[in-house]
Amino acid sequence: MRKRPLINGQTMILRGASGFGDAILIIYIVTEFLKKHTRISLRTKHPSLFTHLGIATERFRKGGEHVAFNYGSRKKIKETNQFQDMCISAGIPSDRPFNIKWPLHNKRLVVKVREMAAGKPICIVGNPHTPFGRRDGYGLELRPKWSIFDEVIEKLKGEMFFVQIGKGNDEYRFKGIDYDLRNKVSDTDSMDLAQRCDCLMGQNGYIIPLAECFDKPLLVGRDILYFATICVVLILAVVLGMINAILRPILLILTLPVNILTLGLFTFVILALCVMLASAIVPGFYVDGFWWAMAFGVVLVIVNSFLNPIWI
C-alpha cells in the first residue's frame, strides 16, 4: 500500500489494478473505505461498477493518489488469496468473507435469459482470452486446454443453459453455446447475469472474483472435466438403477424361453440392451455399438459383484 497524506475535507483518491476482475474486488474495498470516508474518487477503467456506491470516478492513471493497492506484491505468499492480498494492500481487514451488495441494473436482460433457459440451470461461460491481455507470452502457462470446455458443454448439453460473456477477440470459439453475448454486454450486465445464474465456467481471470463475490459454484480449467464426469456418472447410476429395477425384470420374464435355450447367455444380450438404452438417455455417456455395450455391462457386473448385487 502506498499512501499520500490526506488533508481534512479533501477527497480521497484511490487506485487499484485496472482489470475487470480487479474492479470486482475493488467494489468491496471501496465499500469498506466509505465507512470512514464520505468523499472518495476512484481511478478505474470500469466506472459503471461503482455508480451504485455514489462515489466519483476518474480516468485510470498512476501517480498522485492517496491510496494505491494491488495484490501483485504478494503473489508468492501462498497462505492468502487475491482477495485477502488486495485487502491487506489496502490496509483493511482481510479475514471477512468476500461478498458485495449488487443492485440489479438490467432486469430485461436477466428476464430474457431466464425465459430462454426454460427452467434449466444457467451457466455463465467466460470468453477465452490471452492471460492478462498480454502479447509477450506472459502467463500462457495458465491457459487451459479449450477443448476440455467443449467436452463439458457437450456432456451437460440439454441439462444446462450456457450463456457466454466477455470482451475482446476470440482466442477460441466454444461449441454448443446456447446464447452468445460476447462483446454484447456491459460490465454491469455481466454482474447481473453472474448474480442470478446457477454456476460459472471459465479460465483464470475475472471469472473467479465474479463467482466469488456472489458465492456461486465455479468450474475453472482442469476442474471442469472432473466435475462434468462426476455429473455424468451420477446421472448414469440413477438411470441404470431404474432400468435394472423396472425394465430388466420384465425383459427377463419375456425372454425366459430363449434364456433357457441359451443356458442363460441371453442375459448378456439383455444387459447390453439396457446399457444402450442408458446411453440414449444420459447426455455425455456413449457406447459405440452393441458389443461395446455388452463389454461395459460385463465389467459393471464384475465390479458390482464386489460391491452390491445390483445386476446379478
The class by helix and strand makeup works out as alpha/beta
Taking all residues together, what is the mean pLDDT?
A: 82
| CATH fold-level label of the largest domain | Rossmann fold
The major β-sheet equals:
5 strands, mixed
Q: What is the fourth-level CATH superfamily of the largest domain?
A: Glycogen Phosphorylase B
CATH class of the largest domain: Alpha Beta
What overall geometry do the principal axes of the alpha carbons give?
elongated
Q: Can you name the CATH architecture of the largest domain? A: 3-Layer(aba) Sandwich
Low-confidence stretches: none
Strand order of the largest sheet: 1-5-2-3-4
* Residue share in β-strands: 5-15%
- Secondary structure: number of strands: 10
Number of helices: 10
Rg, Å, rounded: 26 Å
Q: How many domains in all?
A: 3
* N→C terminal distance: 67 Å
Q: Which series of helices and strands comes N to C?
A: EEHEEEHHEHEEHEHEHHHH
Fraction of residues in H or I helices:
40-55%
